[in-house]
Amino acid sequence: MGKDMSPPVKWRSPRFPDQLASFRTLLPGMDQMSFAGDWTESRDTVVLVVLAALVGVLCGFAAFAFAWLINAISLVFLPFTWLTGFSPLARDLVIIAAPTIGGLIVGPLITFFASEARGHGVPAVMRALAEQRGIIHPKIAIVKTFASAITLGSGGSAGREGPIVQVGAALGSTVGQILRVRESHLRTLVISGAAGGIAAIFNAPFAGVFYGTEVLLEEFEARAISVIVLAAVTASVVIRALKGNNPAFAVPSYTLVSPVELGPYAVLGILAGLVSVAFILALYGAEDSFHLLRLPDLVKPGIGSLAVGILGLFYPLTILPYPPIFGATYAPIGAAVAGKLSLELLVALLFGKLIATAFTLGSGGSGGVFGPSLFLGAMLGGAFGIIVHALLPGVSAPPGAYALVGMAAVLGAAGHAPITGIMLAFELVDNYQMILPLMVATVVAFLITRFLVRESIDTLALTRAGVTYRARQPTSLPPSLLQTTRVSEVMSKDVATVPPAMSLTELAQRFNETGHHGFPVVNGEDRLLGIVTLSDLENALLKQSTVPAQNDAEAMQPKRVSDIMSTDLAIAYPNETLEAALRTMALRNVGRLPVVEPGSPNRMIGLLRRSDLIEAFRRETMPTQAVAMPSLDIGAWGGTRFIEQMIAPDAPAAHAAIRDLAPSLPRDTLIVAIRRAHTGQVLLPRGDTVLRPGDVVIVLTRPQHATAARKLFEAPREASVVNLRSVSR
Prior knowledge:
Elements: H1 16-20, H2 39-77, H3 80-86, H4 88-113, H5 122-131, H6 138-153, H7 161-178, H8 183-202, H9 205-216, H10 222-243, H11 262-292, H12 300-312, H13 331-337, H14 343-362, H15 370-391, H16 399-414, H17 418-429, H18 435-452, H19 459-464, H20 481-484, H21 487-490, H22 504-514, E1 518-522, E2 528-533, H23 534-546, H24 553-556, H25 561-564, H26 578-588, E3 592-597, E4 600-609, H27 610-621, E5 631-637, E6 640-646, H28 658-661, E7 670-675, E8 682-683, E9 696-701, H29 706-713
Antiparallel strand pairs: 1-2, 3-4, 5-6, 6-9, 7-8, 7-9
């Protein structure tokens, strides 16, 4: 599952495995037998099992403490029981003020202490597994716990499951880091912590196991799954000892009344798929909208929570002493599963919860999407069940059965985890009679959602950030250089920096002296403040030459580096792959990435430039001697392909400048690097760079455009020279 983070512990094997070898001659064929296998590996497995049990125990206590903290905070923020009788106006003011104040507290807490605690938690765990080799800073668990507890306890609309997944993963990572286990074991402990958190929060060990294996585990490996099972079971044992053997919901015993009923359940699956898509789009649409607001991040959760409070005024306080769209309570879900809510209220809660959750998490609040998915599914299923039961009373179950199935369908569809949704609902109802409706509706919902939105509600956040989470992808193809090389292996460690107080004149001299196109800006405490590029300087000098230096205009002109540097930084971590770093460069359109310590984004330890990437390619794929093959596939990268191509003497691209060749390049095709035929010099292509026969180019293109791209560099099949403009776009 990856390279070792650190050398494994060297156990001293006992002598008796060697002594067993002397008995091999006693029985026929014993010389071919392996008695103990790898004794070190066996001892290593024992250690991993013990650590998984420890992580499970910690997750059980963490889930109990998290639930207690939410309840304690809600007693402070949501005192509606006595305010209702005292003054309706006071009650309404508290409904609006409670989540708003909570959001205003959470914003600074996340901004100043741990930005990873923002949002719904699971994408941060996936990113740690994908890019940081499972390393999660312990402070994330602390900040996430308090930020989510304040968000939920004050009335913010989100779930408690995402936070406990992140907290459990951080606990597993912390245990592994303290004991310096190897990377594969560290990743397993992270997933075990996440599974233990789900198992503890629902008192449902099967759900935790399937969540860890279906959503987070990259490869189905027997030892890893066994460890995850142990962590989930241990967490469930702890939570049952603390809270009793009570499931999260009290579910009546429902059954499939008639095989005909599978038709309505399939229709429910279609509706659940559409609701899941709407949930995903609403969540990330709200996130984009708040991102466009020209306001500090620390106040945005307060604005989102204010909208939630205003929305809460329109709901009755009958199910709970506060609006039912508030917080992460399961009471409305339980009422829907029990069939106690009217059709009108179910529909109102469906739309209200979707909007409230989008505002809470999209604005930067802390919580999860697991619980809201269950909420939306229960409301949808309950409403649909009322209609079906009215139309087909003799062959349909009560509406509560449809609410239960709707929970599994929306959860499995939104998270692209149908098995988790099915098993959670099955474990809650503890009745095999409902397994067919659960399977039909959940699978249909998953297929609808997967067709309309290729990414899940969790992985979409990674995709938007330029991170690929490869869960159970085929491993028959060898990994490319981008996938196997870490940033720390190619980054520049001796980095020239500039202080924020440097004048623009001095900065211009530094650019002229070094030939660099950009510098990290670092203060006297070696804290990374920003990046200043040559284009930033050119724009500033142009502004000075066009704005009259009089009155207030002179004071507004940039004078030092701090006035023109960019503070919205794209960064890289030393343990992430070149693939992830290159994707970040492409998405942010930058030529360099500061490399920072994991957990300390202001502590720069190196700089990754495009030239560093090209040099890595040159060392691995462009030997100094002549290239024997005229064309070579280097490897795939997230829907694109790198190809290495020698330019034939009579190729259309021979003797052409890059700017003249650009209109003829196929769509989504880019020339990344050029190696001169005779000198071996590697060039970064510019507009005036002329391609020469014998040069070798590295081209990034889509697989479907690879053939058309090669035609530019290959000899034409016909005797006539192919016109550059004739190549299909």
